[in-house]
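Structure tokens please, single chain.
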Amino acid sequence: MKKILSAFLAALMLLTFLPLASTPALADLPDVEFTLTTSATSIYVGETIFWDVSDIIHGSFGQKYEYTIYKDGAMIAYYPPSHGNDAADRHFTPPSPGKYKAVVRVIPVNPDQTGTRTSDEVTVTARPVSISKVETEGPVSLKVSWDQVPYATEYELWRSDNQNTGWKKIKTLAGTSLTDASLLPGTQYFYKLRYLIPHADLDGYLSEFSPVADGATASVLIGKTRITGITSPARRQVKLTWSRAPGASGYQVALSTSPNGAYKTVRILPGTTATFYGVNPGSLFFKVRPYKRISKTPFWGQYSMMRSIRVK
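Here you go.
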């Protein structure tokens, strides 16, 4: 009986030591090793960063991929663990300028065996925008043009008559030019703009303003006129005709008794012909200029070339 009891105790002691020699600890499991590739080190807002996971070592089939996206050290997006090639090759469009990186975790079927990598940093900057041209388009109208910015869907155009203050947004549009109409003649205007790049998941990016465009002065565009006929159909009469000036509301006829003397306004009328009666005999000199009336204010065009006639 004593021999049997001694053998049982010896076997029990042996079993006590066997687990320590035969079962590996969880800490002994190797980490999952893999390669994380970043598509670029610098891009513009609107462009996309691509991350690629490859060369997985110590993993197993069916692994999941977890992505955490950081901007300037703060987390801005999280993609929970998921399967498949789309999960392994993650792409992300940064919503605004900054420094971005991804922390990727590969999780095999055995959840106690994972691997983590931090991507290279990607610097994202905004494309500059500038007004390329401000030109007279029509009567008291200025056309403002700018170059298209890739990925921008909207542009805000701002205007002021003082380049340092008083700015107002005049329109948001998708195109790259705008005719700014109904301006005050003789007033100098300044323009600046900014653009919007939308984002599918986050707030879009509204850019900084462009440099202020050189001031342009709104002017009244009035075509030129010329005297086409001058006759004396009867004694002490003069008939005058002139061409129509595009954009004109009417015409001013000026008269002088010498080619280089002072001219006096003798008629303002909307048409292109005038007859003068009871004029003094002698040489007479005429000029005509168009005008355009805006808000009860006349804006004058250029005088025509002088024409003369001798009246009996």
